[in-house]
Records
---
Amino acid sequence: MTERGFDLADRVAARRDSTLYRDIAPVDRVAERSYFAPDPGRDLPVLDGDEHLVFAANNYLGLTQDDRVQDAAAQAAEVVGTGAGASRLVTGDTLVHRDLERRLAEVKGTERALAFSSGYAANVGTIAALSPDVVFSDAFNHASIVDGCRLSGAEVVVYDHCDVADLERRLAERAAAAPEAAADESWLVLTDSVFSMDGTVAPLEAICDAAESVGAWVMVDEAHATGLHVDGGGIVQRAGLEDRVHVQMGTLSKALASQGGYVAGSESLVEHLVNEARSFVFSTGLSPPAAAAASEALHLARHGECRDRLWSNVGQLRNGLEAVGYEVRGDTQILPIVVGDRDDALALERAVRERGVVAPAIRPPTVPEGTSRIRVAPMATHSRSDVEHCIEAFRAAGEEVGLL
Ligand code: PMP
């Protein structure tokens, strides 16, 4: 009989032989945080019992272990239930979801917001539901945007990373190529606001100008910005572009210390998504504890002092790493040290880990070949001495592996 299998063992073995192999819990790496860490700044590794400082989490405000956020989740579990039990459109809708969405819309300055079960589901479901004729997408956009574009069936035009001149050129070229059709087509410009592996910030105002000049819509993924800027908003709020960005999307899983995603925009956008976004319609509602935790975290991001502490730690860490000789890219809370070679990145990861700091190497395919890096990210809950410890670990590790 013909063999129609998938040779998975061989494929895994081939990958195992390369430095691109990954495992969920390799013994020489640690989980991002412990459920039992006694001090929020000290996210203890769960696997080997040694104490390490985690400088790589997306839990930027350190709110996953904040009492108030934990209490909100616990209370929602107790009062509302641990799971939504069904799609929001069936019986899964609760006041906890409505409260979260009201707060998101307030912070994002929009008429309405809609919670999804993940940021991935929000991007894929929203882009597919908009079903644009053409999308113009930044070359470094997140995988969930890329997958949303594929699923939407749109013609995809990729422009150079954060390069508005290239975007303008491609918009003009596409308009010239099919002038008749272009007039009736729906066009969508898609960008992350903060690029998670580079710490770069998209030039949103110029992107809006370019899009408006051809009548295109703009959709911005604020996954790595939500909660961190003006009044708990993202870069869209910092730049005052609420009225020019048609679709604001983000996750609840990073600064908002929970799980899930959201889209904020006009009443008609949300109404459309409630009806047409398949990842919303055909998926169980966000769990009430996750919704409650995110809602409380958003409240704290908006009114608390955790944002100030984060930005103070970012300044201290960036200055310290530069002072010991590293070139630190980007201009956000994400501080990438691009090493280049993937073996060097792994060596640096191991050497800082031996000094009590967890900051995993990022390798292809997450980043392009030859640009492997360590993505350092402080949290609001790190103390000044934690940050000093991190800087010293990177200094000593960099010297040991020959990068400084
Ligand atoms: N967009 C961006 C820019 C992200 O970094 C991520 C998560 N890594 C997502 C979307 C997906 O969000 P989630 O993890 O909530 O599915």
Note: The chain has two domains: 24-54+305-400, 67-303.
---
Amino acid sequence: SASAHPDDAIRSTDDDAAASRLSAVSLGYLDDPFVSLLYRPQRIGRDSSSTHKPPLINIGTHHRTAALDAVVDSFLSASATASRPAQIVSLGAGSDTRFWRLAARQDFRLGKYVEVDFPHLTSVKAQRIAKSKVLVSALGEAPPAAAGAPMAPPAKPYKVGHGGTSLSSERYTLLPVDLRTPGALDQVAAALDPDAPTLVISECVFCYMEPEASREVLAWFGSRFENVASVVYEMCGLNDAFGAVMKRNLAARNLSLPGALPFPTAQSQAERFLDPRLGDGVFTKSGAKSLWSIRSDVVSDAEQARISKLEFLDEIEELRLVLSHYVVAWGTKGSLLEGVGL
Ligand code: SAM
């Protein structure tokens, strides 16, 4: 279109993440029936095989998902003894399916699940949810019908608001929030239980923000909740030769990564949670692992054997190089959640 917004490139990054998920699902790396309900690939006159990403990307998507799933599981088991049901906030959620994957499991107690992203993204997501019986069925119960209105149609279990950019329901809330706007998170607070154990997921989001802005976000969550854990997934190490190639690829798409350089290693990603600029007693423990370590520490041998049969991968050294440039880092506050992590 004629008027490009400076954030267009950032908003389009969700396409990449979703297309990678779709590729990994269609090739058997991941089992996720909700991807195709929340994301429609844009085919630009190419054949359907163009929805497949290269093996390195599929393996990365698999390991990233396995790692985040493992952190979420460790958070849910740590929270099982709390008096309030655990809640999850996903920042820059894009077309992520995690809420529906969790809701399909019955083996734990989950309170609220809140997702935020730019309004352009949340309006599309709200529409896709509202159109899908499968997605709506996970949202929880409809509010009780008003007395004295016997002819009213059955109430829907969700409400769309803010000009179609938000959706709220018993178990799930989607909000249009620009995380760089100070005070924007107060909207998110309204959707959360201030006393519940809380996990904040930031999967490939902080790297598109200035480090000061992501620090503010971490500080906000860290000071608001007694028991809180946060997990971040990001590229790192962009100062070496591989990083130079990645940076050129991003620049070709009008993207730069302001947050990438301040956190060049897994160690520095872990330390961001303990930064004194976050304030006193915010996060008290942290850790981090690269996807390469996650491959051996988190993905079981049986799962590695299974996915190794899906596609031919000729270069393990190249895989090591790529996976070493992606990190999952976590920080926790409060004794309840101090074991959360990988
Ligand atoms: N977390 C999802 C995943 O891993 O599949 C999507 C990742 S995508 C690479 C980055 C997402 O962050 C996009 O949906 C983008 O719109 C969102 N995002 C980036 N900057 C943001 C900001 N300042 N406020 C809200 N959302 C933002």
Note: Residues 10-11, 13-14, 17, 92-94, 96, 117-118, 121, 177-180, 203-205, 208-209 surround S-adenosylmethionine (CB under 6 Å).
